[in-house]
Amino acid sequence: PLGKYPPLINDISFWLPSETYCENDFYDLARTIGGDLIEKVVLVDEFTHPKTKKVSHCYRIIYRHPERTLTQDEVHRIHQAIEESAVRELGVEGRF
Questions:
Q1: Any idea what the CATH number is for the domain that residue 45 is in?
Q2: Is residue 2 one of the residues assigned to a domain?
Q3: Rounded-to-integer distance, Cα 79 and Cα 71, Å
Q4: 55 domain-assigned
Q5: What is the pLDDT of residues 62-88, one digit of tens each?
Q6: DSSP output for 53-80
Q7: How far apart are alpha carbons 7 and 70 in whole angstroms?
Q8: pLDDT (tens digit, 9 = 90+) per residue, 19-37?
Q9: In a designed cystine with 7, which of 3, 64, 66, 79 is the match (CB 3.0 to 4.6 A)?
Q10: Residue 20 lies in a domain
Q11: CA dihedral 85, 80, 82, 41 (to 10 degrees)
């Protein structure tokens, strides 16, 4: 374990806008908003819809504070800000 305080894990999934999407842009966006509270961001699933051919990514974000236990309310506010920024800045279509 990286810390003695328990992690909070939240997933985020969205439809990608086009071929111009770059995973690193999402990683950067999440870390910019969550800062040191984000321990890890990892792509856990990629799905292509059989009819529409739209591609969806699901990321797992692990939150952990180095000095105390985080509450789900605290993490929810950060997670919601990441969702809103991803839609606004990356042009994704949220599945949340």
A1: 3.30.70.380
A2: no
A3: 12
A4: yes
A5: 999 989 999 999 999 999 999 999 999
A6: --EEEEEEEEE--SSSPPPHHHHHHHHH
A7: 8
A8: 789 999 999 999 999 999 9
A9: 64
A10: yes
A11: -160
Q: 44 lies in a domain?
A: yes
Q: Cβ-count burial of 53 within 10 angstroms (0-12 exposed, 13-18 middle, 19+ buried)?
A: exposed
Could you list the beta-strand ranges (E) of the chain: 8-15, 38-48, 55-63, 93-94
The pTM (predicted TM-score) of the whole model is: 0.91
Q: Which domain holds residue 50?
A: 8-95
Q: How many domains does the chain have?
A: 1
Residue whose structure tokens are 């870390």: 31
Residue at token pair 């990321």 = 59
Which tokens in the block code for residue 88? 């606004």
pLDDT exceeds 70 at position 3:
no
